[in-house]
Design goal:
The complex is a heterodimer.
Chain A lengths: L2 E6 L16 H24 L7 H6 L3 H16 L18 H22 L1 H4 L8 H12 L1 H24 L12 H20 L3 H30 L3 H8 L7 H24 L8 H23 L5
Helix pairs in contact in A: 1-3, 1-7, 1-8, 1-12, 3-4, 4-7, 7-8, 8-9, 8-12, 9-10, 9-11, 11-12
Chain B lengths: L2 E6 L8 H9 L10 E9 L2 E9 L8 H5 L5 E3 L5 E3 L9 H5 L6 E2 L5 E2 L16 H5 L5 E5 L6 H8 L2 E2 L11 E4 L1
Parallel strand pairs in B: 1-10
Antiparallel strand pairs in B: 1-8, 2-3, 4-5, 6-7, 9-10
The chains are: A mainly alpha, B alpha+beta.
């Protein structure tokens, strides 16, 4: 039997584990960023379509989550940095080749806008709210006058944020599992799906819930289609990509992926949503909670499995 | 100018002198290294072949690490040498995740560190990199590929060589003589 034994002088606990450079911070941030992008996408979309009254949770209530989600996500990102006090160097340059650079700039647009969006809707939570100072009222009036413009900016930047969470990974050719351009659309779809699920969870309006259940169902369908395509692409590609796919097809990530992401996070909620749309009565929270759980697991599994997948030489 | 290095796998005995020289010259923190020795045993017993390689950053012409660096800390310096500017590096780890050769590590001071070909501390003064200068079997060759008389150009003209995972598309500048 032909054998190949590789002994590296680097077998050193301080060096070899560095292959696994990203821990819980990055997948958690990608999940929170995707979720926030999803919520903001629907909020701005229905504002542009003029359907604020029809979908009040999506437009007014759910966006209150987003500054919190983004702040926690950014905090996780900061904790991940090794050179934390130098984080501002991100904002001294724009590097179009680096997804992390334009992602950082996108966050710089989305995060303040999410806060503005909440401020404009603050009376939903606190009906007696008063801004106290005239200049804040002037600012409020300015944003209200330009709501359509803000909605368009938010719509586009939330889509970029959603795609970027996937492209961040797909830019690394050293990790074959991540190195697929389908990861961008896949993470975007997953982010929109978790956003729709969060809106379903918060909504008290049956018409709105049904609409988002339908949207979520469609997004789950797209996700399953993209996942299938990802594996088809891997299996038709080079040995390292086949090895990357086999992490999920018999390898160590098979059970977590197919059980938690595909079955619990996609298939079962899809089934429950079909039943709900058809009029069966069941607790409404099960499907969206599963979707959100599946989205979180998906990012953790892709982040961890990607760092196992590598070129061999 | 294009700096490159060639390592003769037929001469290298895997003594790790290059590793120690680098750690000493560059004040590499204890427990870390910028270069390392890999020993590959290949074949069917009893016909086994051993290849020993002294490996380090490949100073790729199409570097994934430079491409994905969000701040421009990873950059191409003189002669195509890939360097990290510590005060620009935020330690995000994108370059570590992007390197097919796993040539980088997070320095305990926070920034990401790697082989520099000893550009500022030795090469600019006309010296060879520390690893090359100490090799007891003289298995390493360094120099400018644009200069036909540099040691590396000369040896690559006469010997068979390979690079590591050229299929990764990085165009590495660390050559292994075979």
């Amino acid at each position: 039997m032909r054998e190949e034994i590789i002994v590296s002088g680097r077998m050193n606990h301080l060096i070899d584990p560095q292959l696994h450079i990203w821990h819980w911070h990055i997948p958690l941030y990608l999940f929170l960023g995707g979720l926030a992008a999803g919520i903001l996408f629907f909020a701005s979309l229905y504002t542009i379509l003029g359907k604020e009254k029809e979908y009040p949770t999506a437009v007014r209530l759910a966006p209150f989550l987003t500054p919190v989600l983004l702040t926690v996500g950014l905090l996780a990102l900061l904790l991940d940095l090794n050179h934390k006090l130098y984080f501002w160097q991100l904002y001294t340059t724009i590097r179009l080749e680096s997804p992390m650079s334009w992602g950082a700039w996108t966050l710089m647009v989305v995060t303040p806008l999410s806060i503005v969006w909440c401020a404009l809707n603050i009376k939903v939570l606190f009906p007696a709210w008063d801004w106290k100072y005239q200049w804040i009222w002037d600012l409020d009036a300015f944003f209200r006058k330009n709501l359509k413009v803000i909605s368009w900016i938010l719509l586009i930047s939330s889509l970029i944020l959603g795609v970027y969470t996937g492209i961040l990974f797909s830019a690394f050719n050293a990790r074959p599992l991540w190195n697929t351009s389908i990861l961008g659309p896949l993470f975007l779809t997953s982010g929109l799906s978790t956003g729709a699920a969060a809106i379903i969870l918060m909504s008290k309006n049956a018409h709105e819930r049904h609409n988002f259940a339908r949207i979520d169902l469609m997004l789950i369908g797209i996700e399953l289609f993209l996942i299938t395509h990802m594996f088809m692409g891997f299996l038709a590609s080079t040995q390292v990509h086949i090895d990357a796919a086999s992490l999920f097809l018999g390898g160590p990530y098979t059970t977590p992926f197919w059980l938690f992401v595909v079955t619990l996070g996609l298939a079962i909620p899809a089934l429950l949503e079909v039943l709900e749309i058809r009029g069966y009565k069941m607790p409404v929270f099960i499907a969206p909670v599963l979707v959100i759980f599946g989205g979180l697991m998906f990012r953790f599994i892709i982040a961890y499995a990607g760092q196992v997948s590598r070129w061999l030489y | 100018m294009r700096y490159a290095m060639a390592v003769d796998t037929r001469k290298c005995v895997g003594c790790s002198d290059c590793v120690v020289a680098c750690q000493t010259e560059n004040n590499v923190p204890i427990g870390f290294c910028r270069d390392w020795v890999v020993e590959v045993t290949d074949g069917t017993y009893p016909q086994l072949e051993v290849e020993i390689r002294s490996e380090r950053c490949n100073h790729c012409e199409n570097s994934p690490c430079v491409r994905c660096c969000p701040t421009g800390a990873s950059h191409y310096a003189e002669g195509g040498v890939v360097l990290v500017t510590p005060h620009k590096c935020i330690g995000c780890g994108a370059c570590i995740a992007s390197c097919p050769y796993d040539a980088r590590y997070p320095h305990p001071d926070g920034y990401v560190d790697k082989c520099t070909f000893c550009l500022h501390n030795r090469v600019e003064k006309g010296l060879d990199p520390a690893c090359v200068s100490v090799c007891p079997t003289k298995c390493m060759y360094f120099g400018d590929l644009d200069d036909p008389n540099s040691p590396v150009s000369k040896v690559l003209k006469t010997r068979k060589y390979k690079t590591l995972i050229p299929e990764a598309g990085t165009n590495p500048q660390l050559y292994f003589l075979i």
